[in-house]
């Protein structure tokens, strides 16, 4: 083994978790720069940082042959145009959330997060082990894209509101920034869902263009300064019990890659799917403490009645989406079947344990 090959093997193993054993790339004669469009500001905590980590991992694991140039939202294309940029070849990669592309297929929502749906662990299990990835590739291929899980901000906060929510009637007429199926649910109960990039939520709240908005949770929301524009911080986030990020790749580029380079891309995404949720958990609690103690934010919980009505609306939204489009119906059937299967064990394991932990902590 030559010193050059040894160096490539070492970098691949450390940066991408094991691709070192694969053959050398077929187009190793020259270096290539891959342009990554993203759905959030460059190097923004949690999200933008994750995009950069993915790019750095790919660059290191390829020994610098593949240099990833990361563009923040709006630098290369607007955030909601990242998918089209990759599909057309104007960009090579995107790092964003799949529900941004629901206008192309409502099936994309299932690969990001579904109201009252799977937790992060359950969603990972479906994608990696129960057919979710294969369905995702089937949906994306018709647009010239292939995508992989590449981060997760996990359970979302309920959002920022400029009035208290005491009943489902308080949601009627409410203009709320909320994407994906969550937005459809708000529409169903009489509100108006507004789709905005994260970077535009603050100004919309401040100007009164929207009455409420949600993005992720305390860490990201603190960074965006939402506490300056809305009084009440509500939980739980019914709309996204998990919030997966994805790494999309132009399909022609992907098919031209060697198996080694494909593995580098996949493992860089998988690595971030571990690093990113850990990053959020490490920062959410202390950010919540800052919001409550330093900025006087009022923390609220949605009443049970509101959760029940939102749950009913969710069932209607999902049923209608599945009935309207065969591909969405196929994905929904797989998703819901695994949710029904996984929920039984989650209730007996994590849910039961968390209840027990709360009892023990309360007892001192």
Automatic annotation (TrEMBL):
Keywords: Metal-binding, Periplasm, Signal
GO biological process, one term: transmembrane transport
Family matches, as Gene3D superfamilies: Bacterial extracellular solute-binding protein, family 7, Periplasmic binding protein-like II
Top-level taxon of the source organism: Bacteria
Sequence positions that bind substrate: 156, 177, 214, 240
Subcellular location as annotated: Periplasm
Chief site of localization: periplasm
Signal peptide (from-to): 1-28
Entry's transmembrane regions: none
GO cellular component: periplasmic space; tripartite ATP-independent periplasmic transporter complex
The keyword Metal-binding is annotated on this UniProt entry: yes
GO molecular function, one term: metal ion binding
Protein's recorded name: ABC transporter substrate-binding protein
């Amino acid at each position: 083994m030559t010193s050059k090959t040894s160096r490539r093997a070492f970098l691949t193993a450390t940066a991408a978790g094991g691709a070192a054993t694969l053959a050398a790339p077929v187009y190793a004669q020259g270096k290539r720069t891959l342009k990554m469009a993203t759905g959030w500001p460059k190097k923004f905590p949690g999200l933008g940082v994750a995009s950069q980590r993915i790019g750095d991992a790919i660059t290191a694991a390829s020994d610098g042959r593949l240099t990833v140039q990361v563009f923040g939202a709006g630098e290369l294309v607007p955030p909601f145009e990242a998918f089209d940029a990759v599909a057309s070849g104007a960009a090579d990669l995107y790092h964003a959330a799949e529900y941004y592309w629901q206008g192309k297929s409502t099936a994309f929502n299932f690969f990001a997060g579904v109201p009252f749906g799977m937790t992060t662990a359950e969603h990972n299990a479906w994608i990696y082990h129960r057919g979710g990835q294969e369905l995702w590739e089937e949906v994306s291929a018709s647009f010239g894209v292939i995508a992989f899980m590449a981060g997760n901000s996990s359970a979302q906060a309920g959002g920022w509101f400029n009035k208290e929510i005491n009943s489902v009637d308080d949601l009627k007429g409410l203009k709320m920034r909320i994407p994906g199926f969550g937005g459809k649910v708000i529409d169903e109960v009489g509100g108006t869902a507004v789709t905005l990039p994260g970077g535009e939520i603050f100004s919309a709240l401040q100007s009164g263009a929207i009455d409420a908005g949600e993005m992720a949770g305390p860490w990201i929301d603190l960074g965006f300064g939402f506490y300056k524009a809305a009084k009440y911080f509500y939980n739980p986030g019914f709309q996204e019990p998990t919030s997966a990020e994805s790494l999309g790749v132009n399909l022609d580029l992907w098919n031209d890659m060697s198996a080694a380079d494909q593995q580098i891309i996949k493992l860089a995404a998988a690595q971030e799917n571990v690093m990113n949720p850990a990053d959020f958990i490490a920062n959410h609690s202390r950010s919540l403490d800052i919001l409550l103690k330093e900025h006087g934010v009022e923390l609220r919980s949605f009443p049970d009645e509101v959760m029940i009505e939102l749950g009913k609306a969710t069932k209607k939204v999902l049923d209608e989406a599945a009935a309207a489009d065969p591909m969405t119906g196929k994905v929904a059937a797989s998703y819901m079947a695994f949710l029904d299967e996984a929920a039984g064990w989650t209730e007996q394991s994590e849910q039961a344990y968390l209840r027990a932990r709360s009892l023990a902590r309360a007892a001192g």
